[in-house]
Amino acid sequence: MLKLKSFKKVVLGIVMLLLVNLTFSQDNKPPLSPLDSAKGILKSGATIKIIYSSPSVRDRKIWGELVPYHKVWRAGANNATQIEFDKDVKIDGNLLKAGKYSIYMIPEEESWSIIFSSQTGQSGMNHDGTSTLDFEKIVLRGLGSTKKSKSFNERLIYSINEKGIVLSWEKLDITLLMK
Prior knowledge:
Blueprint: H1 2-24, E1 35-41, E2 47-53, E3 77-85, E4 89-91, E5 94-96, E6 99-106, E7 111-117, E8 138-161, E9 164-177
Antiparallel strand pairs: 1-2, 2-3, 3-6, 4-5, 6-7, 7-8, 8-9
């Protein structure tokens, strides 16, 4: 009887060790769309910081398929892309106050609508594939220009230069000028 109780304890101990080992030995693969950021200064002296998730192409057709034309897109992956300005900026002649915003985009073949929303911290997409953009919280819309990238970009990348922001992904650069 004593041997049976000891045997049960040993078996129970081994089972618990196996469960703990399985729990902590899960693949720790990097996320498919890792969190990234970009920071830069405009010619006007305004500092811009962008926080976004960076998806990769992974042999997919991006423009017109993964990211459909004529529909609101979260401008990255996972949560809505956030942008922060430490000073007021002008976009297409319109004033955008210093602060934190979410960026959404509406891709077109020639030029893109870049949308700044006062709503921040939300997921970028609903479960049905629609955008989480609350149209009542749109603060400003700008017009971004597109051009073919000089090189292929496997990962979506934001960059900031003295003239504005650039989103580069796959074979396309989208530029939004700011002052």
